[in-house]
Amino acid sequence: MRPYRNMYADSEYWSTLPPPERSRHIIRTMAQQYPGRVFAGLSAAAILSLEYPWGLHADGLIYIAAPRGRSAGTHPQLRHIVLTDTPVRTVVDRIDGGRFGTLILPDPATYDGIGDVVNTMRITTPARTLVDCGLRYPFVQTLPMFDSALRRNLATREGLLELCDGLRADCGPVMRLLRYTNPLNENGGESLCYGTIIEEGFAVPELQHVFIDPDDPRVRYRADFVWHTSDGRVIVLEYDGTRKYVDPAMTNRRDVRDVVRRERAREDALRRAKVTAIIRTDYDEVIRRTPLRRKLLTAGVPMAVADPRYERRLDMHGREW
Prior knowledge:
This protein is α/β, with parallel strands linked by helices and about 325 residues long. It folds into two domains: about 10-180, no CATH class; about 190-310. It is about 40% helix and about 20% strand. It has 13 helices and ten strands. The chain has helices at about 10-15, 20-35, 40-45, 125-135, 140-150, 155-165, 170-180, 190-200, 245, 250, 255-270, 285-290, 290-300; strands at about 40, 60-65, 80, 90-95, 100-105, 115-125, 205-210, 220-230, 235-240, 275-280. The strands form three sheets. A four-stranded mixed sheet has the order 1-6-4-5. Strands 7-8-9-10 form a four-stranded mixed sheet, with helices on both faces. Strands 2-3 form a two-stranded parallel sheet. A hairpin with a 2-residue loop joins strand 4 and strand 5. Helix 4 packs across helix 6 and helix 5 (about 140-150) packs across helix 8 (about 190-200). The longest helix has 17 residues, at about 255-270. It starts with 10 loop residues before the first helix and ends in a 22-residue tail after the last helix. This is CTP synthase.
């Protein structure tokens, strides 16, 4: 099959690849064909392995930085992001000590002591990539990118603010992302859930709060999202991924019954720690929104729009900033 002009792949192999990896395959090949190209936006986010909903790749587009917009002869799958004085980083796929990995280098890049270089690609800096995506895609779809970039120390709030200050563009969407981004979200699913909670108007939850079992202080549990309400209630929301029950790496090869039994023991301990309500949700409910919203309302999670005291910003340690 032909995923892009002058590119071919075995159809069976291609069908096994998730959308971000398909994009990375095309970009690697294109970088060999056109070494001077600088990939930007979602394409740069894919190379950086940032977290985001795979649906952003549904249109199959590849994004490059260019000094002007798309010309008439441009391939329909190629999009230009108009940038001047583009900040660039070089990304290399390398084999070092028999292990394959990806490394971000300054530009111009030096390749001394980094192993055998397999592929070389030029992309916009992580900060510029985040800003371009933040201006192009909805809040809940871009928040996982920001959380994962800050979690991996690829960018900082200060650097992103400085970049926005130098742009002739309305960076309001990026300011909103910076207000709420929190690297304590451990994966893209939690970030998506967190962003949806905010968009639905609920109070910003505390992330990764640790509860101690009163019956055994050595036993501690971290909860994904927690609200401490003004009337003394403690509400916990747990985001469950299917991997939690079926992936051997996540279950330590225990069967589903054992995993469920441990979850019940965890809930009992949380209730002993004065948690008054425990809610569970998953990716499907978050995407559909209505089931998640109904659960939060039923549990009495406060609405930020109704009580400004709950509208707050938290740093990576869960503290207000």
